[in-house]
Each structure stands twice: as C-alpha cells, then as structure tokens.
TrEMBL record:
Keywords: Signal
Family annotation (InterPro entries): Metallo-depent_PP-like, PAPs-like
Protein name: Purple acid phosphatase
Coiled coil regions, renumbered to chain: none
Length: 132
C-alpha cells in the first residue's frame, strides 16, 4: 500500500500528523494482510519492523518512509524521542482526516518515546532514493 503522510515515523517533522487516518484505516490493512507500506512526506528515511498499533506484531506490515529526495524544506534530522524535541500533541492535528486523533500514547503515557521506538528498525537523515 502507498499514500503520502506516514503513520510510523519518529522524526519531529510531521510527527503523527496522519494519526486520524491511521486510526480509521490501520485495522483494514492489518485484516487483509498488508505486508508493506510506502510513504513520503518526511524528508528522511525510516523503516519499521512489522508493526500494528505501535506494537511489534509478526502479522503487521513494514512501513517505509522514503521522503529523502530533497527539497526546499531541507532534510529532517530531529527525532521526537530526543530530549526536548517532542512536539506538543495539539500541534499535530490532521486537518484532512478530522482534526486531532493522537490518543495512542506510549506505554509510559507520553506522546513521544524516550528512545528510538521498538517499531523503528532503521532511520537515516540523508538525501537519496529507494530501489525495490
């Protein structure tokens, strides 16, 4: 599957902006056995482990953000799990899918993780391209 804004990205740029879409559609993709999801929007690379609802799940898809082609916005380099970099939840609305939907918080009850999330397998701030 593919669409523009990622559901699983630990960068501060566009952090959890598509949460409403994720809440509305993740169960559908999971129930039909989606194996891989491609997204852009965040100008960096990040690949997830198999994940469903922020938890590692052997039946969940791998999410790949390949938005690192470069543009005037520059590269995304900060992660929401870095000290002092977690955005305020109300600054992350999803205007296209109905507003604020970031109700899923980490197991510690926070909006951001304290370290690279378990779902995040690899992240790299660089410009490039992907080949499948």
């Amino acid at each position: 599957a593919s669409w523009h804004p990622p559901w699983y990205s630990s960068y501060t740029a566009h952090y959890r902006e598509a949460e409403c879409m994720k809440e509305a559609m993740e169960e559908l993709l999971y129930s039909y056995g989606t194996d891989i999801v491609f997204n852009g929007h965040v100008h960096a690379y990040e690949r997830s482990n198999r994940v469903y609802n922020y938890e590692l799940d052997p039946c969940g898809p791998v999410h790949i953000v390949v938005g690192d082609g470069g543009n005037r916005e520059k590269m995304a380099i900060e992660h929401a799990d870095e000290p002092g970099k977690c955005p305020e939840p109300l600054t992350t609305p999803d205007p296209f899918m109905g507003g604020f939907c970031a109700w899923n918080f980490t197991p510690s009850g926070k909006f951001c993780w304290d370290q690279q999330p378990d779902y995040s397998a690899m992240r790299e701030s660089s410009f490039g391209h992907g080949i499948l």
